[in-house]
Design a protein that fits this description.
- It is built from three helices and no strands.
- By secondary structure, it is mainly α.
- The N and C termini lie far apart (about 65 Å).
Length: about 120
Amino acid sequence: MASSPYFPIAVLFVAALGFGLAPLGLAWLWQKVYSPAKPNLVKNSIYECGLVSKGDAWVQFRSAYYLYAIMFLIFDVEAVFLLPFAVAFTGLGVAACVSMLVFVLLLVEGLAWAWAKGVLTWT
């Protein structure tokens, strides 16, 4: 068994599985030993605010919020890509500056498109 080429992979798989499951097992054991369930009226009552819920928990979600989230992610990723460029700006050549200019122009084009489509209007 030890001469198999897959033996080290199997050992690492078992170690990774044990590394992930051991804390879960220890937490479960700790909970069973030191935190026995004692349900009572206070523990089963509504938490903190004390308001009894009314109606169904189902609410309609406006899909326009999805567009706001996507726009935020686009410009958040822009900041992630612009930061390393800004840090290393003095050591970069003309080609890097031109490629970053193209990147920023594409983002400005996306912003203009979103503005023209009315994505940025809060209604």
